[in-house]
Amino acid sequence: MHLTKVYKQHVAVNDINLKIKAGRMTAILGPNGAGKSTLIKLLIGQLTPTAGTVEMNRTRQPGVVFQGSVLDDALTVEENLRLRAQQYRDVPKQRVAELRVQLGLTSFFHQRYGTLSEGQKRRVDIARALLNHPEILFLDEPTTGLDIQTRTVIWQLLHDLQQREGLTIVLTTHYLDEADTADNVYIMTNGRVCSHGSAAEIKQRYGRPQLVLTVAPNAQPTVLATLVQTEFHVTGNQVICLPTDMASAIQILTICQPNLLDFEYRPSSLNDAFMALTGKELT
Ligand code: ADP
Ligand code: MG
């Protein structure tokens, strides 16, 4: 560990320590240029670290899905997978059929890869990476460029693989909302890990829930006078409070109730946490 990768002058990965838990899903989050792809390439041994080492207990080669596909547009899904299966020594005959069912490829199995939708292509790419039954699967931004529904489908598929097959999954993403339930999250900026934990822990540590109060204009001074212990700001007839926790949000609501027209409680998100950590929004 203590992984570092320097490209000429640029430090792309700066002294990173990472523990991948077997059978779990690890999400590496960060904006473009954070060093995510470089880190993945170091982990799979495609790049040699400038400093540090990677220790991995494994017997089979890891499965890898990169952003650009390696499959042939002119061949069907089945032809692509069969051809790739031959490149391994010990892929059993039924493995392609198994993956067809597991990844839901049946309806487009005999269609040419080049004619598939992006979401379908991604599923075939994942099937290809699983041909030799790897214990660990690395995916670099598997959901980038997909619409939100398709992203959800791919994410669910990966969760299922992790839970049902006990597959260890390491993936990168710049969509913070995707990692919202992940139990092992690393947030990366500028080549460094700036936070690590479960999504819930990170949100609790850095995110702040918001309580948005809509109050009648003449009641605003009364409401503001009660917010002595709470950070807030005012926009129009809305008072946006940053209570420290849910209990204090309930307290604020109780006190202000007679003067409220409406309210909204927004639990803290990974995006809030990211903003608190880096001072900028991830887009
Ligand atoms: P991410 O995947 O998070 O977008 P990358 O790992 O691709 O980030 O890149 C991290 C940084 O390293 C970027 O500033 C990028 O420009 C730089 N970089 C990536 N690959 C190379 C390379 N082969 N040579 C020089 N610089 C590179
Ligand atoms: Mg990348």
TrEMBL record:
This is ABC transporter ATP-binding protein. One of its GO terms (molecular function) is ATP binding. It holds the Pfam family ABC_tran. InterPro entries: AAA+_ATPase, ABC_transporter-like_ATP-bd, ABC_transporter_ATP-binding, P-loop_NTPase. The keyword Transport applies. Belongs to the ABC transporter superfamily. Coiled coil: none annotated. Residues 1-215 form the ABC transporter domain. It comes from the Bacteria. Transmembrane segments: none annotated. Keywords: ATP-binding, Nucleotide-binding, Transport.
